Amino acid sequence: MESRLKKIERLHYITHPVAAYTLAEQTRLVTEAGGKWIQFRMKQTNAHTFKGQAEQALQVAREGGATFIINDDVLAAKMLDADGVHLGKEDLNPLEARKLLGDEKIIGCTANTLADILYLQTLPIDYIGLGPFRFTSTKQKLSPILGLSGYKTIIQALQRQEIAIPIIAIGGIRLTDIVHLFEIGVYGIAASGVILNTSDPKASCTALLTQIKQSQ
Q1: Binding positions for 4-amino-2-methyl-5-(diphosphooxymethyl)pyrimidine (predicted)?
Q2: E strands, the chain, in order
Q3: What is the mean pLDDT of each run of 10 residues along the chain (216 residues)?
Q4: How many whole angstroms separate alpha carbon 153 and alpha carbon 113?
Q5: Is 45 annotated as a binding residue?
Q6: Does the annotation place 147 within a ligand binding site?
Q7: Domains in the chain, please, with CATH?
């Protein structure tokens, strides 16, 4: 399922604050490994810190030729001239976000159910992050786990209704899950811990990219 409007990468890296790497350093590790999509996610911080960290990561992403998406904050995405925004269920309505950002920017939204997707796909958005696949410690307030069978049921329902919008699987995805997710029709995956929480994040990212290419 190709995007209706814009190029959506198959691997979405989501930044996550850790002691070992700044968010800009994470961005560099991913882009140097060949990753072309960074979702800047930084919770529970003040606006000044957020802006400073986002500007640094954005510069690195630009140098690496990567798409740079701001998590949650539409106004920050507009101010920084990021490539777009990813909206959770409690964030600004996508219709309002589109008015603020314009037609050229990317808007993605979070979904946890088929009903969520059926609603979201009627709005001016470009992709949907569907999850969680399994338990993940990088996100609080986790929704019910979908698992492979949950994804398969949802993807098949979308196919029957001829709904074509890129579905990005998210939530505790491992390297060995990729082939199975692509087999059932998932467009791409979002990753954080599977890259970051390893002894060699760059090599881990390369391995994911290789597996994605082989699984398409």
Answers
A1: 39-43, 71, 110, 139
A2: 11-14, 37-40, 67-71, 84-87, 106-111, 127-130, 167-169, 188-191
A3: 71 95 98 98 91 97 98 96 96 96 97 97 97 76 86 97 96 96 98 95 98 96
A4: 10
A5: no
A6: no
A7: 11-215 (3.20.20.70)
**153 labelled as ligand-binding?**
no
Residue 73, annotated as binding a ligand: no
1: annotated binding-site residue?
Answer: no
79 labeled binding residue: no
Q: Reduced to 3 states, what is the DSSP secondary structure of residue 127? A: strand
Sign of torsion, CA 53 56 61 64?
negative
Is 110 annotated as belonging to a binding site? yes
> According to the model, what pLDDT value does residue 6 have?
86
Q: Per the annotation, does 41 bind a ligand?
A: yes
Is 42 annotated as ligand-binding?
Answer: yes
pLDDT of 184 reads 97
From CA 133, how far away is CA 155, in angstroms rounded? 13
Q: How open is the CA angle 124-77-195, to the nearest 5 degrees? A: 95
Q: Is 172 annotated as a binding residue?
A: yes
**What is the DSSP-derived secondary structure letter of residue 88?**
-
Q: What angle do CA 162, 166, 171 make, to 5 degrees?
A: 125
* Stretch (H or E) spanning 203: helix 201-215
Question: Does 36 appear as a known binding residue?
Answer: no
pLDDT at 137: 63
Q: What pLDDT score was predicted for residue 139?
A: 58
Is 72 among the annotated ligand-binding positions?
Answer: yes
